[in-house]
Structure formats: structure tokens, C-alpha cells
Amino acid sequence: MTRPAERSGGALDLLLRINAALAVVLFAALTVVVALQVLTRFVLHIPFIWSEEVARFLFFWTVLLGAAMSVRSRRHFVLDIGMGRRAVTGGAARVILDLVPHLCVLAFSVLLFVLGIDYARAGLLRTATNSNVDMGLVFAAVPVFAALTFVYTVGNLLADVRGLRSGRPPADQPAPGGE
Amino acid sequence: MIWLLLGSFAILVLVRVPIAFAMLISATIAIAAQGDVAMTIVPQRIWVGLNNFPLLAVPFFLFVGQAMNETGVSVKLIDFARAGVGWLRGGLAHVNVTVSMIFAGISGVSSADTLGVGSVMIPAMRREGYSAPFAVGITAASSTLGNIIPPSLMMIIYAATAGLSVGAMFLAGIVPGILIGGGQMVWAWRVAFRGGITETASFSPRRLLATTRSAWPALFIPLIVIGGILAGVFTATEASVVAVLYVLLLSALTRSLGPRRLFRLTEDSIGLFSLSLLCVAAASLWGWVLAYYSVPQSIVTWLGDVGVLSSPLRIFAAVIVIFLVLGSFMDAIPAIIIMQPIVGEVATAGGIDPYHMGIVVVLTLAIGLITPPYGLCLLIAADLGETSIGAALRALAPFYLISLAVVLIAVLVPGVILWIPDAVISGQPR
């Protein structure tokens, strides 16, 4: 990430596209597995024993990949007490307001990556009861999420710094996802 | 250490760290400072929080709502509602509420309703002589039904974190949804009457038939979801995936979604549902730390000392005030997730039925969707109507009263609300 900013944007977009494609594939697999579970229960009256387990694993991966995507698109829920960044004009206050959240998330993602690797390695020794899926494979979603969050946050941080320097208002917080 | 948790959370959230990350970071700081728990508890609780089968309904219902908006279903539903109730005095206002109620039976997300219905209905209402603030107000207020009439994102999250049946929680939303919608239509009639608005479309059975024919594929979804759960055929999660299959089949038959648009739609839905679900994962860690310091029990003891626990009414009053405030500052999902461990404990201590408490919380948080500064539905509708928040607030006043009245009904006569889940719940799995 020490590359010039324009290039990092291109590399980030590629990463994001791979990330999104993987998430969509896993979500499709999740849909198929749960649909099969419902169909077999109604048609064959024999539930798959492995389907619920596998569904939960796919769900875990899909959610964490999606959460990483939303770090890039800055959609995660933020508290709004009405004195948002627009109220603060110029100077150091503005820089702090814009950059501190990124730095907090960055520090946490590094820690989560280390802890997540430990956790996934501990999981390698176990397999799931019904489906024999290696739990290390499931838990690996955590360090992957941490790594993606780190990279996307660096990208967003650089974009904001560039924006601040050129005097443009930083990329505005887009409308959150809603509920 | 508990002050370290709450203090760092407050600071992080105030400097605009996303709420999910603020929960994760503050909990991690508290655990590290405590020092006697292995730090792998952090990834472990993220896993435990998401390893919860009922949560699978969240992505599926969200996808259905997004797909319906993408394929222009809201316009067909508006035509249908126009033929159905457009001949009443204040026709367009009634159409607005009716469409929101139908949409609520398809999607569990209110802001999608505000956008889908509001972008067509607000300009149409202004053309017919309604004031812009009223058009904005009724659009925003009626779209809160999205989280009250099943399916509902708030209810899935509440039920999943509280260990309740999502299906039963859904069914508890039917009566309050109809009460609020009905109240809004009565008020709309009065506004149209006083304002001398006479626009009506004459009733035509042929038009009703024609619009039903083009809208029935969408109308079928509430039937699958609500009907399936009511009849005890499906659990909520099963109903959600059946709805997804139905939407996919429909779009394949009508060729309304090409592979590229389907991909983009799915990608967008994943980004959207992961927002709420990352909060769920973060709350699992946060809730674990709270429980480690037995915070919920301490709060219950304290509330008992203060005398709040002595009557259910006082408990409900406290819960309603807390969620009205929280709901106007943050999204309902993190509000539910942060408070549920405590609210659940308090309800048990006060001998309150968990579904009774759940529906009161959801109804209260739905009001937060139209309360500034963070009333998402209000912000979207005001933007669509090019109206100031202040002007819209005056038009919204009666709608607050209607919603609050239904919250009161839910508190005082729970039998009115809970008879459907009570009647169905016997012999139902999850």
C-alpha cells in the first residue's frame, strides 16, 4: 500500500471485485443448501443432517465478506448526533474527525488478524459433527475479514488524506443501509 | 473495567467510528485490560454470534425486498392500490398507506419502502393539491410499517438475540400493523376533508381486475410468508428462502432480471445485510463482556432498588423512553443488540412475557425511523419531497400520536396483539 494513490485505487477495485464475486458465489450456495433443506423436508420427509451446519458456515463467510465490502463503501452504521463533520470547519479538528475512525479500525484489524489466525489454527484440529467440514476453514473467515478491512481502510484513509490536501470536502458518508 | 468498556465505546462512537467496530474495539480493550481471559475470545465470540440459524432469514428477506424494488414492483403495487382504495376521499393518501402495508408484507426494511413508494407517491400527491409536508409525513410514517408487518428485520434480530421464535414475533406484528395503518388512513381522510381535497378516481371493477392481474405475482409473497407461518407450514427462515426461490423463478419466467443485474443486486444485498449482521457479531462479544461483569443483573438489582421493577407498567415506561431516545440517534439494529441482554433480563425479573416486551420494543423503535436527527425514513422522504425537516415534523405530529397510541395499546392490552402468535405457537418448531 505504499504505491502511488491512483494505482492503489485500481488494485483495490480488483480486490473488491474478487471479494464481491466470492461473496455472491457463497450466497448462491447458501440459498441452494437452505432450499434443498426445505425441499427435502417437504418432499422426502428426510432432513439432510449436514445441510443446516453447512448453511451456517456459508452464512458466516458471506456475512464477513460482505461486511468487508461495506468497509470499502463506508456504509457501516455510524452514530449521528447532528454535529457531524460538516459542522466543524477547517483545521486540526477536521483532520482528527476524518482520520481517527480509520486509524481505530486499522489498529483493530491488525489485532483481529493475529487473533483470527490463532483461532483458525486451533480450529484446524476439529471437524464439524455432521458434515466433517474442517472448522479451521470456517474460522479462516475472521482473519480474511480482518485483512480485507485493513486494506480497504488504508485505501479510504489515503483517499481522505488526498481530499483534505486538495481542499475538497472528503468523500461524504453515503446514506447508510437502513433497516 | 466496565467503565473502560462503556467509556471507550462512547468516545469511539462520538468520533464516528462505525458502531459495530466501536463495540468490538471497546470490548477488546476491556478484555485486554482485565487480562485474565485469553484474547482468542474475540474471534470466538464473532463466530458464536453469527452461528445462529434463525439469522439466515435476514439475508433472504432483504434480497427479496431489493429484488422487488429492482424489478419495478412498487409501481405495479401502486396501480393496484389506486384501483382498490383510490376512490376514497383523500385517495392518494390512502393509496400511499395501502401500498406501504403491502410492501411491508414483502420486505422487512422500511427505508426501501420510503424510497420505492415515496419517489412515485410524493410527486403525485403534490400534483393533486396535498401539501408537501403532509405528503412527506404520510410517506415516512407509513413506511415504518415495513418493520412492523412481517417480515421485519428488527423482529428477526430481536428474536434471534433473545432466543425467541422469529415466526411468533412476526405474527405479533400483524395486529399493530393494521391498527397503525388504519389510524393513518383515518387521519388522511380527515386531512383531505378539511383541506378540501376532492381528488378521487372513480371505482372501476375492470381496472381493479387488470391491476390485480399485473400485481398478483408480488401480492403472492406476503401470502407465502405470512400465510405459511400462520398455517404453521414454514418457519420464518424457511419462508424466507421459499420467497427467494419464488422471486428467482418469477424473474426467470418474465425475464425481468438478467444475469448481470442479478449479480449486482445480490452484491448490493450482501453489502446491506452484512451491516446489521456485523453488529450482531460485535454484540456477541460486547454482550459477553457485559455478562462477565454481570452488568444486566446489576442493572436489574438497581432498577429493583429504585422501584421500577415493582410494576410492569413502570418497566414498560422506562423501556419505551430509552428506546425512543436511542432510536432517534442510531439505527434500530444496534440499539436492539446493545440493549437486548439488559431488556430481556428486566422483562424476566418483572414477569413480562418476552414476546410482549419484544413487540413493544420494535413498535417503539419504528417511531425512531421518523424522529430526527437519525430518522432514516424521514430523511429520505423529506429529501424526495424537497421539504425541510421542520415542516415535515409538524405534519408528522399526528402520526407520532397514532404510533404511540398503538404502543400504549400493546402495553396495556397485550391480548389484542398477542392472540395470533398465542393461537399459532402451539406445536410449532422455531
Please sum up the structure shown:
The complex is a heterodimer of chains A (179) and B (430). By secondary structure, chain A is mostly helical.
Protein architecture, described:
- The complex is a heterodimer of chains A (179) and B (430).
- Chain A has helices spanning 5-44, 51-72, 91-123, 135-139, 141-165.
- Chain A contains five helices and no strands.
- Chain A is an all-alpha fold.
- Helices cover 70% and strands 0% of the residues of chain A.
- Chain B is an all-alpha fold and 430 residues long.
- Chain B has helices at residues 2-14, 19-34, 41-50, 57-70, 73-85, 91-104, 110-127, 132-143, 153-162, 166-172, 174-194, 205-230, 236-254, 259-292, 295-306, 312-329, 332-349, 354-368, 376-385, 389-412, 414-425.
- The longest helix of chain B has 34 residues, at 259-292.
- Chain B is globular, with a radius of gyration of 22 Å.
- The chains are: A mainly alpha (179), B mainly alpha (430).
- At the A-B interface, helix 1, helix 2 and helix 3 of A face helix 1, helix 2, helix 3, helix 7 and helix 13 of B.
Output the keywords.
heterodimer; A: 179 residues; disordered N terminus; B: 430 residues; mainly alpha; globular
Beta-strand percent range of chain A? under 5%
- Terminal CA distance of chain A: 34 Å
Strand pairing plus helix content of chain A: what structural class?
mainly alpha
By secondary-structure content and strand pairing, the structural class of chain B works out as mainly alpha
Question: Unreliable stretches of chain A, pLDDT < 50, 5 or more residues?
Answer: 1-7, 82-88, 170-179
Enumerate how many helices of chain B there are, as a single number: 21
Percentage of residues assigned to helices of chain B: over 70%
Output the helix-strand order of chain A: HHHHH
The major sheet of chain A is characterized as: none
Could you report the average pLDDT of chain A, rounded to the nearest whole number? 83
Overall form of chain A: elongated
State the helix count of chain A. Answer: 5
**Low confidence ranges of chain B:** none
Helix content class of chain A: 55-70%
Percentage of residues in strands of chain B = under 5%
Any idea what the shape of chain B is?
globular
State the assembly state of the protein chains. Answer: heterodimer
Radius of gyration of chain A (CA) equals: 20 Å
- The overall strand count of chain A is 0
